[in-house]
Design brief:
CATH topology: Nitrilase/N-carbamoyl-D-aminoacid amidohydrolase
Pfam family, one: CN_hydrolase
Largest sheet: 6 strands, mixed
Helix content: 10-25%
Structural class: alpha/beta
Family: Belongs to the carbon-nitrogen hydrolase superfamily. NIT1/NIT2 family.
Catalytic activity: a monoamide of a dicarboxylate + H2O = a dicarboxylate + NH4(+)
Protein name: Omega-amidase YafV
Enzyme class: hydrolase
CATH architecture: 4-Layer Sandwich
Radius of gyration: 17 Å
Number of strands: 13
Number of domains: 1
């Protein structure tokens, strides 16, 4: 089988007001929002089908449940990858599970490593313990979820397990928006990688406000300019050849420490 490779990818960051604890309503809204949209990767916020809720008895789904099935259908219909996290029950444990679903059953799974104890996530969910690297169209992609962004050692771009693009989906409140933006930029600079961060908008069931603030930073920490004009679909184009040339010229990664999580 021949795997398609692309030097340039279009990435769409979908920031919207997630309907609280109502997967069907969110699926329907996204169906309408994404109608006729063209992209290579569509990145959705953390727990995009429910909001960042601790009520797992209401929102928890079985592995490869209804929201995963919706993602799979959407990936095939749009001919692109769909990525986002879902409250998932496996065995007797709940996980904040990131799915990356591409057409023709290309599936990657990452369970959020760092649980947000301040928001009681660690009391309800279990932490993942595995780094995942996605191979997609000639790119190596590293997924993380929200609070993981604060822990740079976990997401270090290492020689043993390198990546070209970091995907972070989040429910990051307005009160800490400056930290969100600063951390996205810092991760791009220290790892010399594109970093895409998507965040929700609106007010959730805990009365927390979100302002979106989705961004895509390049290899040197510059904020990329959108290639479209839409309030909820922020689309960018990234260029692997350009990134490779930048890394070759500014070969800072050659001086990195040799520690490795794997």
């Amino acid at each position: 089988m021949i795997t398609e490779t692309k030097s340039k990818l279009r990435i769409s960051l979908i920031e919207y007001d997630v309907v609280w604890e109502d997967a069907k309503a969110n699926h329907q809204y996204l169906d309408e929002l994404l109608l006729n949209h063209k992209s290579d990767i569509v990145l959705l916020p953390e727990m995009f089908a429910s909001g960042f809720s601790m009520s797992v008895d209401k929102i928890g789904e079985k592995p490869f449940g209804p929201t995963f099935e919706w993602m799979q259908q959407k990936a095939n219909l749009m001919n692109c990858a769909i990525a986002g996290s879902v409250s998932t029950l496996e065995g007797n444990k709940y996980y904040n599970r990131f799915y990356f679903v591409s057409p023709n059953n290309g599936i990657y799974i990452y369970d959020k490593k760092h649980l947000f104890s301040y928001g009681k996530e660690a009391e309800v969910y279990s932490a993942g313990d595995k780094i995942v690297t996605i191979d997609y169209k000639g790119w190596k992609i590293r997924p993380i979820v929200c609070y993981d962004l604060r822990f740079p050692v976990w997401i270090r771009n290492t020689e043993e397990n390198p990546y070209d693009l970091l995907l972070c989906n989040a429910s990051w409140p307005k009160a800490r928006r400056e930290a969100w933006i600063s951390l996205l930029k810092a991760r791009s600079i220290e790892n010399m990688s594109y970093v895409a961060g998507v965040n929700r908008k609106g007010i959730d069931g805990y009365n927390l406000e979100y302002k979106g603030d989705s961004h895509l930073f390049d290899t040197l920490g510059d904020d990329l300019v959108m290639i479209n004009n839409h309030p909820e679909i922020l689309q960018f184009e990234i260029d692997k050849e350009k990134q490779d040339k930048t890394r070759l010229h500014f070969n800072f990664l050659n001086d990195r420490d040799s520690f490795y999580f794997g």
